[in-house]
## 1
Amino acid sequence: MLITTTPTIEGHPISTYFGIVSGEVISGIDFIKDFTASISNIFGGRSGSYENELIQAREAALSEMSKRAQQLGANAVVGVDIDYEVLGSNNGMLMVTATGTAVLVR
């Protein structure tokens, strides 16, 4: 499955448009990740626990989007956009959404 943020794939003309597909992931951020992130914030540096959570959520959203495109008969998704949101009363949930257009390319 080809996945791209561009509206076309060079050298691969689009023969069929199947429509918009998306993948959504909502994951919780736990106390341990909050604690280790606060330590990184105090001493400087990057928060590996949050970065890993973002990477896993993004990959899961892209995978879900890809599966939905395959179910429609697509072999590519173009114009992909990835959005991140924080949810919950204490901002303890992370939502990642991947959206694009499922297409059939030659």
Note: Residues 23 and 37 are 27 Å apart (CA to CA).
## 2
Amino acid sequence: MLTVSKVDLSYGAAQALKSVSLEAKLGEVTCILGRNGVGKTSLIRAIGGRKGIAGGKIILGERAIEGMRPEQRARLGVATVPQGREIFPLLSVEENLHTGYAPIARKDRFVPPEVFEMFPVLKEMLGRRGGDLSGGQQQQLAIGRALTTRPKVLLLDEPTEGIQPSIIKDIGRAIEALRARGDMAIVLVEQYFEFARDLADRFYVMDRGEIVASGKGSEIQGGEGEADVRRWLTV
């Protein structure tokens, strides 16, 4: 579903991504691992269109999207749950969810029932302002908003950051349910190794803007493979 090929990205004189390549397939969770500042969020911004690339290709299905604006990519099925959530604090939960209607056809402008099945707290708090929710509830809202766009590719940028353990488990179960549907490619950026390890079908490790290791998720579930990846995550 998603192919990133030899992508370069710079902020002024600083090169954040150096010839980064990866694939994300339907029905799989592709995990991007690495320490702070190695380029993971820059990669998510490049895929979603929030930051232009200096070179390389980004292919959605068979269509090149690297020259498209973020809203054009959203209409084609790319949805981002950004680091920090970026919900609208003064809008209600329901209004935040409805902002996901922007890129989709009028006939599809309703919140998918699965959003409330995975995150029932959102249904209970539809009238509450987004800024009044806890951090974990805001994260659930950000994921629900992304799902409202009916994505083919779901980009999750550190969804466990600053979240209480009980909601981390809820988010993990939601990702598993979305994977099981088989109609979505999920790209998960994480520093929380255990969370990523338990979900990954495929993993990529980044360091200094480059992919330094990759493989199947089963390769990091114990043994030398897990130890090698953990070393890359050690500060």
Note: The first helix runs from residue 40 to 48.
